[in-house]
Write a structure and sequence with these properties.
By secondary structure, the chain is mainly alpha-helical. It has helices at 19-24, 43-52, 58-70, 72-97, 104-118, 146-157, 191-207, and strands spanning 27-28, 37-38, 121-126, 129-134, 165-167, 176-178. Bound molecules: zinc ion.
Amino acid sequence: MRSAKPHSGYQFDLSGGALCLDFANTVSHRHLPQRRAEHLDSYADLVAFAEQSKLLLPKLAASLRARSARNGAEAQSSFRKSIVLREGLYRAFSAIAAGKHARPEDVQQINDFALAALKHRKLTRTNGDYRWEWQSSKGDLLDRILWPIAESAADLLTSKERAAIRECGAPDCEWLFLDQSRNGSRRWCDMKSCGNRQKARRHYQRTHE
Ligand SMILES: [Zn+2]
């Protein structure tokens, strides 16, 4: 099931400020064929992303791993759906970051994934508190990672925070983030990587002109 290039040790960068943006950022240099780095190569990578994003408790993550190992075709189908969702999220939110409208077909796709997710919402009472939980049956267990991501996308699209969606200022990066800085001045997905890289580049240009 796993590809020849396992990512078991990959630490996902969760600096997007919203789950759906972190998920869109699971590929690096999307549009640069030579440098493109895919961080989701298999269903197991999807489980790793979900675990690191705290979408799954370790016990549930273990059942998803076990089921996906037993049901290769089912895991492959969930995995493919996740990539379709991710690319649609990138298109919609990068258009918005550029001050444009998301394309109707990309909005429709978020709508469809979010509606599919909603069917699995259930109000429950635990220790005197009421809360929404995700309910899955065996047949749709592997899809459950996609539900909170789709919900996060629909929430972001319909919230005021939509105006704070940005695409990283490094020309080769294309990661998305929510600019939550007080004066709306955040330019880089991650200061440690892109921010410093861009600063160094500008310094180099200045000193070599
Ligand atoms: Zn960046």
